[in-house]
């Protein structure tokens, strides 16, 4: 089973990815992890990607696809995987489909799972995060409020809101997400592979809805 996991920042993809990989016995394949692993090992693909990153430019689609294809060719991913963070564009989706079709034996995407959460809820979730400057422990102003004196009970460090958790930054991140994802969602919908699940509610409720959608 090969499943693509889509969803905006704050939708709960990380939580649900863990449950999915456990239930179906497939690895969680995230592009960030692939990049870090190749850079750490100094692989030819990693060094090629590093060249672009050192220049401050985006790693081109063609190289991202090769990195993902290499990961999907590894033994633990031959029976399937959960793709997170890829594809991000229709061009990447087309390249992924071509790679899978040429595999031996041929493979294909079983489902593209979209975790849907309204922007207003995402803003509430993301702007409420608070972090300790000292040890990195985190709280949430709504779900797990920090101490009233904003001092970490573990290390005494200051509890603060990170700059990338500000409302303006969150709105920008969501705008970029919607611009990038809308064509991709439509593409998988036309192929009959799109499964939409609400990311609202308790994690266990969302998890059951995902399992139901995937069958």
Features:
215 residues, alpha/beta, Rossmann fold, 5-stranded parallel sheet, 3-stranded antiparallel sheet, 8 helices, 8 strands
How would you sum up this structure in a few lines?
The chain has 215 residues and is of the alpha/beta class. The chain contains eight helices and eight strands, in the order βαβαααβαβαβββαβα.
Topology at a glance:
Layout: E1 2-6, H1 13-24, E2 28-30, H2 31-41, H3 44-54, H4 61-72, E3 81-84, H5 90-102, E4 111-116, H6 119-127, E5 129-132, E6 138-140, E7 159-160, H7 167-190, E8 194-198, H8 203-214
Parallel strand pairs: 1-3, 1-4, 2-3, 4-8
Antiparallel strand pairs: 5-6, 5-7
Oligomer type: single chain
Helix content: 40-55%
Rg from Cα: 19 Å
- Strand runs, count: 8
Order of helices and strands: EHEHHHEHEHEEEHEH
CATH level 1 name of the domain at 2-117 and 182-214? Alpha Beta
User: What is the CATH superfamily label of the domain at 2-117 and 182-214?
Assistant: P-loop containing nucleotide triphosphate hydrolases
Would you identify the regions where 5 or more consecutive residues have pLDDT less than 50? none
Mean pLDDT: 93
Distance between the termini: 11 Å
Tell me about this structure.
- Helix 4 packs parallel to helix 5 and helix 6 packs across helix 7 (167-190).
- This protein has 215 residues and is α/β, with parallel strands linked by helices.
- Helix content is 48%, strand content 15%.
- A five-stranded parallel beta sheet has the order 2-3-1-4-8, sandwiched between helices. It has a three-stranded antiparallel beta sheet with strand order 6-5-7.
- A hairpin with a 5-residue loop joins strand 5 and strand 6.
- The chain has helices spanning 13-24, 31-41, 44-54, 61-72, 90-102, 119-127, 167-190, 203-214, and strands at 2-6, 28-30, 81-84, 111-116, 129-132, 138-140, 159-160, 194-198.
- The mean pLDDT is 93.
- The chain is globular.
- It has a domain at 2-117 and 182-214: P-loop containing nucleotide triphosphate hydrolases (Rossmann fold, 3-Layer(aba) Sandwich).
């Amino acid at each position: 089973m090969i499943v693509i996991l889509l969803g905006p920042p704050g939708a709960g993809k990380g939580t649900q990815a863990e449950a999915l990989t456990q239930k179906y016995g497939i690895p969680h394949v995230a592009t960030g992890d692939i990049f870090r692993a190749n850079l750490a090992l100094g692989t030819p693909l990693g060094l090629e990607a590093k060249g672009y990153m050192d220049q401050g430019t985006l790693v081109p689609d063609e190289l991202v696809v090769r990195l993902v294809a290499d990961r999907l060719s590894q033994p633990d991913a031959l029976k399937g995987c959960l793709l997170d963070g890829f594809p991000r564009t229709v061009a990447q989706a087309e390249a992924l489909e071509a790679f899978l079709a040429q595999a031996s034996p041929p493979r294909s995407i079983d489902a593209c799972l979209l975790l849907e959460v309204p922007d207003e809820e995402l803003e509430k979730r993301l702007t409420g995060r608070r972090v300790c400057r000292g040890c990195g422990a985190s709280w949430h102003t709504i779900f797990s409020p920090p101490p009233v004196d904003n001092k970490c009970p573990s290390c005494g460090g200051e509890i603060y809101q990170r700059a990338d958790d500000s409302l303006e930054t969150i709105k920008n991140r969501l705008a970029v997400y919607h611009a990038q994802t809308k064509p991709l969602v439509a593409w998988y919908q036309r192929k009959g592979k799109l499964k939409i699940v609400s990311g609202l509610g308790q994690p266990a409720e969302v998890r059951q809805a995902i399992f139901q959608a995937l069958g």
